């Protein structure tokens, strides 16, 4: 029969579901019911915390398929909390406010089938004998690297309105409506802050300009046709006509073997859809469950459409029409910072697609994005060693830590973690 919430619990593990920062000193509160433990035959209560990188690659050898695996330990700590010989506190429930410091150089939490970076903690009540199952309480948590002082200053500059230099990426194509005739030209320019890396979970401003030039036409051929058939190629004037895609390219290695994997983080300018997904994520957090879908949130998009410009060519009656539209907005990326490690790497590519009528006429512009951490390492809790020291977290307000990174449900499941396996049962 399942225990009700009013029945006493043997082990209660209290650990808020927040993103943790590498180098952070964090607290875990463990409540342990001693009378229940003695009755249950528990002889040792231990606390374990660990982080690992796991990669796996499938290879087919004739009729045999083999999954090659490799595990790289990041850190591990095991501490004994209680034995039957521990002093009697006079209370049925003993509380252990346990503290531990995460290593400073931890990589971010991550999950795909070929590679994972996981962090977990576990409280185990050991029961002797092969037929006696151990008792345990478990918690999975996520980690992000700590932002440096310069990264925090950059993040604050972006929040207040970017006034620094911009980096432009340009692309152009020759397209035509049919298979014969003169080509038209289309141009795209993407402008983003000129930074070595962009902080995650921070609105990043950008500008995306599209310029089109018709083939040579008569001046009387006005670009805005009365019958709703503008001269080819007409630039899109609605943000919903564009497609915005973020891709993550992943390379996993198991010794001499490696595999490439690509994830598509589908994005677009559908603001109502993005808001619905954001509300869904927030509702999931409010009910203490993991999010099932996360998107890079695009804020309100502003469009400025220029008047068509006539550019004469050989003589005044012949020339081209140039049209231009510029979209400006911000995008927030809640994904794990870019990583290169011993057995797993990933990087990001942001792509804009501008559709035009005709076969293979879509204009695609893409740029690599290096994502950096966006959270400061909090100072140690009051009373912990080093709590009186000054850290760079005091330079700028770090703001509330996000409750979740973009991690799939499989990350939060119990499969694949290096749990105490209850004597292989």
Structural description of this entry:
- By secondary structure, the chain is mainly beta.
- The chain folds into 2 domains: 11-146 and 376-412, Sandwich (Immunoglobulin-like); 149-372, Immunoglobulin-like (Sandwich).
- It contains 4 helices and 24 strands.
- It has helices at 34-40, 149-160, 271-286, 409-412, and strands at residues 11-14, 19-21, 25-33, 44-61, 64-82, 93-101, 110-111, 115-126, 135-144, 166-175, 184-193, 198-199, 204-213, 217-218, 243-254, 257-268, 297-298, 302-305, 309-312, 318-332, 339-340, 344-354, 363-369, 371-372.
- Strands 10, 11, 13, 14, 17, 18, 19 and 20 form an 8-stranded antiparallel sheet that branches.
- The longest helix is centred in the middle third of the chain and has 16 residues, at 271-286.
- The chain starts with 10 loop residues before the first strand and ends in a 13-residue tail after the last helix.
Radius of gyration (Å): 28 Å
**Shape by Cα distribution:** elongated
Order of helices and strands: EEEHEEEEEEHEEEEEEEHEEEEEEEEH
Helix content class = under 10%
Which architecture of the largest domain per CATH?
Sandwich
Number of strands: 24
State the domain count. Answer: 2
Strand content: 35-45%
Query: Which CATH class of the largest domain is shown?
Result: Mainly Beta
The end-to-end span amounts to 21 Å
- According to CATH, what is the topology of the largest domain? Immunoglobulin-like
Output the structural class. mainly beta
Number of helical elements: 4
The overall average pLDDT, rounded, is: 83
* Low-confidence blocks of residues: 270-295, 388-403
Largest sheet: 8 strands, antiparallel
Oligomer: single chain
Organism: Mycena alexandri
Domain Arrestin-like N-terminal: 95-145
Region (Disordered): 217-238, 378-401, 406-425
InterPro entries: Arrestin-like_C, Arrestin-like_N, Arrestin_domain-protein, Ig_E-set
């Amino acid at each position: 029969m399942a225990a009700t919430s009013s029945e006493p619990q043997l082990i209660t593990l209290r650990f808020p579901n927040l993103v943790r920062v590498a180098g952070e000193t964090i607290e875990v509160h463990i409540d342990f019911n001693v009378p229940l433990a003695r009755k249950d035959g528990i002889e040792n209560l231990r606390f374990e915390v660990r982080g690992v990188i796991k990669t796996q690659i499938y290879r087919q050898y004739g009729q045999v398929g083999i999954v090659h695996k490799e595990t790289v330990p990041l850190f591990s700590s095991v501490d004994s909390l209680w034995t039957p010989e521990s002093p009697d506190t006079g209370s049925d429930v003993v509380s252990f406010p346990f503290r531990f410091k995460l290593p400073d150089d931890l990589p971010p939490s991550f999950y795909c089938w070929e590679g994972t970076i996981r962090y977990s903690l576990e409280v185990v009540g050991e029961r002797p004998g092969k037929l006696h199952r151990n008792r345990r309480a478990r918690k999975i948590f996520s980690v992000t690297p700590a932002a440096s002082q310069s990264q925090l200053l950059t993040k604050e500059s972006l929040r207040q309105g970017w006034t620094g230099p911009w980096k432009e990426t340009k692309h152009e194509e020759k397209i035509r409506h049919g298979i014969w005739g003169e080509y038209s030209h289309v141009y795209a320019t993407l402008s983003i802050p000129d930074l070595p890396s962009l902080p995650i979970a921070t609105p990043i401003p950008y500008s995306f300009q599209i310029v089109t030039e018709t083939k040579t036409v008569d001046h009387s051929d006005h670009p805005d046709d009365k019958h709703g058939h503008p001269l080819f190629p007409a630039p899109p004037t609605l943000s919903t006509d564009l497609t915005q895609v973020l891709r993550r390219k992943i390379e996993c290695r198991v010794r001499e073997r490696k595999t490439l994997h690509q994830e598509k983080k589908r994005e677009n300018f559908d603001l109502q859809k993005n808001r619905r997904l954001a509300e869904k994520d927030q509702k999931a957090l409010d009910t203490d469950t993991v999010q099932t879908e996360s998107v890079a949130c695009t804020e309100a998009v502003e469009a400025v459409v220029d008047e068509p410009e006539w550019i004469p060519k050989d003589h005044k009656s012949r020339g081209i029409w140039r049209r231009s539209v510029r979209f400006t907005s911000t995008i927030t990326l809640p994904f794990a910072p870019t990583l290169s490690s011993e057995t797993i790497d990933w990087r990001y590519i942001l792509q804009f697609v501008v559709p035009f009528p005709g076969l293979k006429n879509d204009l695609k512009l893409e740029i690599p994005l290096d994502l950096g951490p966006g959270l400061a390492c909090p100072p140690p809790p009051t009373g912990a060693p080093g709590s009186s020291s000054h850290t760079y977290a005091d330079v700028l307000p770090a703001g509330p830590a996000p409750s979740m990174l973009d991690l799939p449900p499989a990350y939060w499941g119990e499969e694949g973690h290096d749990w105490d396996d209850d004597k292989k049962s």
